[in-house]
Specification:
One of its GO terms (molecular function) is extracellular ligand-gated monoatomic ion channel activity. The protein is of the alpha+beta class and 353 residues long. It has helices at 2-20, 226-245, 254-275, 287-335, 339-352; strands at 42-57, 62-74, 90-92, 103-105, 108-113, 121-125, 130-142, 154-166, 170-174, 180-182, 191-200, 203-204, 211-223. It folds into two domains: 8-223, Acetylcholine Binding Protein, Chain: A (Distorted Sandwich), CATH 2.70.170.10; 227-336, Neurotransmitter-gated ion-channel transmembrane domain (Methane Monooxygenase Hydroxylase, Chain G, domain 1), CATH 1.20.58.390.
């Protein structure tokens, strides 16, 4: 009996949908306020739910998102009788049967809909003609990032929702509450989401006086600089400190002093070279570039200073030993009364030379 009732209900709903779509033209826009001389624009309400932030590409300056978008508008041609609340809404998957806004994401680089098992899009039609369209989509967005204060930097990435119709024909607006919802685990390895703002960004045409509707969801990300402190700046700071410590080593241990200075400088350069692969490459200088330059310069300066000081000390010690030997010879000659003979020998050597 229940199976028979279910089949009858399904047949009834199918007939109801066919009756609603009879003489329905999906290419024509709905008409709002037919009694007025000028039709009112169609109001399309938006809200999105960001499920995952897949990846932030520093080199290409792109953001990958997986989100569910919802659009809602009124189409009086789709009104139907709900039989005292027994039919709260009609639901179907094929969106080509009714008119839908020609919505697109203006800063999209790449995107795809999910249709592995079934198309992840759904349409609900309510008795008063309200239409709700939902879908799941993966987007790659173009997001210019300013790295001048890298690694302690903040950047904004906008999701721009646009339409080809003018504001007089169609108007986008955000839902009054919970217009942008974000999953709590939206954190990357190097970035964390600080806030999300909803904004309106109507576009004015350069060739005419018309304006086009646009919405914008602004994602603000903060860099997680603790990663760079642990893997780059702390090890480099310790190597730089070792380079400065060599300046306090006694000059008598000049071999150890030069060896430690050169090894510290070599390890510092190797560490900086390997970590450059993790740093975004830009045509302008960043805070990291200035730090790397001055830190490398100081490490190089301590190595050169150690070499110069130790070389001067070595020359002084060598000259001192030679003078000391000459004084000892003269003192021995004076002690044994052989000073005149020693001077004669010295004059003879100078004359021969």
């Amino acid at each position: 009996m229940s199976s028979y009732s279910s089949n009858n209900l399904l047949l009834f709903l199918t007939k109801l949908v066919e009756a609603i779509l009879y003489n329905y033209n999906a290419e024509e826009m709905p008409v709002v306020n037919e009694t007025a001389d000028v039709y009112d624009p169609i109001i399309v309400t938006h809200d999105i739910f960001v499920r995952t932030c897949c990846h932030i590409d520093d080199e290409r300056e792109e953001l990958e998102l997986i989100l569910t978008y919802n659009m809602q508008w009124n189409d009086s041609r789709l009104q139907f009788y709900d039989y005292n609340g027994k039919i709260p809404y009609l639901q179907f998957i094929n969106s080509s049967k009714i008119w839908t806004p020609h919505t697109y994401f203006s800063n999209e680089v790449d995107g795809k809909f999910y249709d592995i098992l079934k198309p992840n899009s759904l349409i609900r039609i309510y008795p008063n003609g309200e239409v709700k369209l939902s879908g799941k989509v993966s987007l790659t967005l173009s997001c210019p990032i300013d790295f001048r204060y890298f690694p302690k930097h903040t950047f904004e990435c906008a999701l721009k929702i646009a339409n080809g119709n003018t504001i007089n024909e169609l108007f986008f607006k955000w839902k009054k509450e919970n217009e942008i919802q974000v999953t709590k685990s939206l954190t990357q390895r190097r970035y964390s989401l600080r806030k999300v703002d909803a904004d309106i960004c109507h576009v004015h045409s350069m060739s005419s006086t018309e304006s086009y509707t646009c919405l914008r969801a602004i994602f603000t990300f903060d860099s997680i600089d603790s990663i760079y402190w642990r893997h780059i700046y702390k090890p480099c700071a310790m190597l730089l400190l070792i380079s400065f410590v060599t300046l306090w080593i006694y000059s008598e241990h000049w071999k150890s002093r030069i060896f430690i200075s050169l090894i510290s400088f070599a390890l510092f350069v190797i560490k900086i070279s390997f970590t450059e692969n993790e740093i975004p490459k830009r045509s302008y200088s960043t805070s990291h570039d200035y730090w790397s330059f001055w830190a490398t310069f100081l490490s190089f300066f301590t190595a050169v200073e150690s070499i110069i000081v130790c070389s001067i000390k070595y020359r002084i010690m060598t000259t001192g030993e030679h003078v000391g030997k000459h004084v000892n010879v003269e003192w021995t000659a004076m002690k044994h009364g052989r000073m005149p003979e020693l001077k004669s020998e010295m004059y003879a050597r100078q004359y021969q030379s």
